[in-house]
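Hi support team,

I submitted a single chain yesterday and got back a structure, but I'm not sure I'm reading the token output correctly. Could someone confirm the output below corresponds to the sequence I sent? I've pasted both exactly as they appear in my results page.

Thanks,
R.
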Amino acid sequence: MRDSSNTTVDSNGFIKAASPIFRLANSADSATDESHNFTAAGSGAANVEAQGVTATHDAVGVYTITGSLGFAKAGWTVEVPQDANGNRLCVLETEQADDGTITVRTFSKRIDSETGDVVADQPMDIPDGRWIDLRLSMPEPPTNDHPDDAPEPPAPLTPEEQEQQRIEQLERWRASAAITPRQARLVLAKHGLLAGVTDAIAAIEDEQQRQVAEIEWEYATTIERAAQWVNNLYASLGLSESELDILFKEAASI
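Hi R., thanks for writing in. Yes, this is the structure output for that exact sequence:
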């Protein structure tokens, strides 16, 4: 007999066999469903088998999922939300690190003029009220029959290891963070920095780098945190690296 203990309902309303499932969304409210045992966990919701998994919404169209061993080893792993005609609402890319951390990037769609394929266009968030289903692999829980089978708890990280972990997480975020020009201009205007951008670009001594910055600022459709021209500018605006990170995160929430 099928019930909520052995089945789950995906983003498109289809019933599937239960397993560790995480519903990735812009907010937990979109994915939480107590009738199907999905409880809030960061930017999404986890079912009973995926307890301990959580997600963060790092930038426009960038999400990080932690707490699992990564994607399931067999069977389906990702279910993208669809419209009433069965068309996917977004294009996504996934990346899995050695420690099981999953990065999901979502994009709007466009048609490749040469192949006719649907391909990724601009970064976009998961549509409001919808979610992406991720089927995961989880550590084996200890059994009461064999308590000795329980894995040894990991040794606590030393302060040096904690700092190294923080740096690695920050670098991964910087490599993937991106905002729209609108978001960039709004957050700069909010902090009284927008008028200084043109002067900061004009002050770049290297002519080629200055021209690149002028073109990117005027015509770019996305602004990446890791872009060289961005890193050439922030000091001229009186910002530190950490202050630039804060502005990018604030802009991504606009």
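A quick pointer for reading it: The CA atoms of residues 187 and 247 lie 7 Å apart. Let us know if anything else looks off.

Best,
Support desk
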